[in-house]
Each structure stands twice: as structure tokens, then as C-alpha cells.
Amino acid sequence: MREKQKLSLEIQPLIELYQELDSKIEKFKRETGLDCIRGCGECCAIESRKVEVSMAELIPLSLHLWETGEAEGYLKKMEQMDEGGPCVFYKKGPRVKEEGGCSIYPWRPLVCRLFGFSAVKNKYGQPVAVLCSVLKKRNPEVVREIDLKIQRGLEIPINPYYAKRVTLLYPTYGKERLPINEAVKKAIERVGFYLELLKKEEKGLKTFESYDRAA
Ligand code: SF4
Fold first, then answer.
1. From ligand 1's centre to the CA of 133, what distance in Å?
2. What are phi and psi of 134, to 5 degrees?
3. 41: closest CA among 84, 103, 83?
4. Which of 3, 97, 174, 183 is the most core-located residue (most Cβ within 10 A)?
5. Is the pLDDT of residue 63 over 80?
């Protein structure tokens, strides 16, 4: 148990970053009236190869899965999955949930938090909203209104800014972007490996990064 507490302390800055981002997105939703269509799940139902994330984004989720005893089950499930299938956490079912089928919603990676409610900057440094295609199709007027609001100063999370902050927290795991199922597999395995190392308390090493340098 001590090793899990130790790792929890290490991932605290990332948890705080996610909380900060979530509250900015909530504010953006309130101010624009924009929100996901209840139970939609379109963004999760696509081929997992098209959703790229870094392992760093998945560290809190991986620790959570080891804590709940689900990690090995997901590793096995991924071995049997078709490469062209959706994200391993996507559950399509008759029960329509607000989260749209994500079975690990509170632990989802950065890219899934930003999707539909973030912006990139154009060559003039102005934020340009990157919104969900389903919402755009349904209501192109709202999208135009949001663009105008952004031009007038409405705050919207800037996607590369958050991705960079995650990379700075965990440089070894934040740079490479992989298809989500591949990244999940690697992140679960790596966190499991650290938990084992922490159990042994070998070499007096203290952080993710120092363990990685020694591995
Ligand atoms: S982690 Fe959740 S939100 Fe992200 S793609 Fe998978 S099912 Fe969708």
C-alpha cells in the first residue's frame, strides 16, 4: 500500500492540472451553452488508432486500475482486441449515460478532456476553436457565435498549452504519442513495473523519472 501512496503523491500535479482544466471547460460550457449530446460517444466509437495520447496522460488511470485490481483484466482484453476496434474503455450499450460510454470517465486522458472544448492558435496567435463535428453539423450557428465570443475575449483552453504542461511534468512519457490502446497497455505495464520497484525500494530512487533512467 505504501508504494501506491508514494506514486499517488507523484501524480498529484497531473491530477491538479486535470482539475484546473475541467473547471475551465465547465466555465466555457456555461458561457457558451455548448455541451456534448447526452449519450453520444461518437468520438470514442472511432478506431482507437485515430485517438493518439501520451503515456503520461494515462498515469493516474493506470494507477487507479492497479488499485482496483482491474489492470491485468484490461491487459488481457487488449491482447484479444482487433487493432481497428475502438478504445478499450468504450462501452456501447443500451444504458445511455451522460459520459457517452466511457467506462473510466473521471480518469480519462488529457486528449479526451480537451476534445470538443479547446482551441489551437492560428499564425497570428489567435485561438481558433476546434469543436466536435457532430455539434458543428447540428448547429453551425452556435459555432459561429462561439468564434465571435472567443474573438471578444471568451477564454477557451488551448490544446497545445495543456499537452506541453503534461510533457513538462513527465518528460519521458509525455513526448511520444501513441494510439490510445497501445498507450494504455504501455502505461499500465510501466506503472505496474514502478509499483514492483517501489515495493522493493531498490537503489534509493524516488521518482518516475529516476526509475526510468535506471531501468
Ligand atoms: S478513454 Fe474514454 S473518453 Fe477517451 S476515447 Fe476511451 S472511452 Fe472515449
1. 17
2. -65, -45
3. 103
4. 183
5. yes
Q: Is 114 in the pocket of ligand 1 (CB under 6 A)?
A: no
Which ligand 1 atom minimizes the distance to the CA of 48? Answer: 5
Looking from the CA of residue 41, the nearest atom of ligand 1 is 8
The confidence score (pLDDT) of residue 100 equals 64
Total-model pTM = 0.89
In this structure, are residues 109 and 44 in contact, taking their beta carbons and an 8 Å threshold?
Answer: no
Give which of 55, 211, 32 is closest to 119, Cα–Cα.
32
Domain that holds residue 96: 2-214
| pLDDT for the residue numbered 87 | 96
**Residue 108 Cβ < 6 Å to ligand 1:** yes
Tally of domains in the chain: 1
pLDDT, tens digit (0-9, with 9 covering 90-100), for 132-177:
989 888 888 887 889 899 999 999 999 999 999 999 999 999 999 9
Q: Where are the alpha helices (DSSP H) in the chain?
A: 2-32, 42-45, 59-68, 71-79, 110-114, 133-138, 140-151, 159-169, 171-174, 180-200, 208-214
**Core vs surface per residue 64-100: b (16+ CB within 10 A) or e:** bbbeeeebeebbeebeeeeeeebbbbbbeeeeeeebb
